Amino acid sequence: MVNLVPIIRVSFDASSIQKALDREAKGIQVPMVNNKEDAELVVKRAKFPPHGQRAAAFVIRAARFGKDGGELILIMQVRIS
C-alpha cells in the first residue's frame, strides 16, 4: 500500500475550500494569498468552530459530522509585490 496524501488546489472562496474538504481531501493548496489577513481567512475557512468558521455538517460522514478531526495540510501561495 502506498501512503499518499490527497491535496486539492482550490480557489480562495469559502465554498471551494468547503467542497474540497467535504470530499475528504487531507490538504488544500490555495493560490493568490496576498497578505497575512488572507492567510488567516483561509485557516478560518478550513477549520470548524471554535477554531474557524467552516460550516459544520452534522449529518455528513465526509465532514466528520462537524467535528475537527485529524491533521489538515494548508498550502498557501503567497504573492509578494
From TrEMBL:
InterPro entries the UniProt entry points to: HpcH-HpaI_aldolase (IPR050251), Pyrv/PenolPyrv_kinase-like_dom (IPR015813), Pyrv_kinase-like_dom_sf (IPR040442)
GO CC annotation, single: cytoplasm
UniProt superkingdom: Bacteria
Protein keywords: Lyase
Keyword Lyase: yes
GO molecular function, one term: aldehyde-lyase activity
PANTHER family: 2-KETO-3-DEOXY-L-RHAMNONATE ALDOLASE (PTHR30502), PHOSPHOENOLPYRUVATE CARBOXYLASE FAMILY PROTEIN (PTHR30502:SF0)
Protein name: Aldolase/citrate lyase family protein
Source organism per UniProt: Bacillus salipaludis
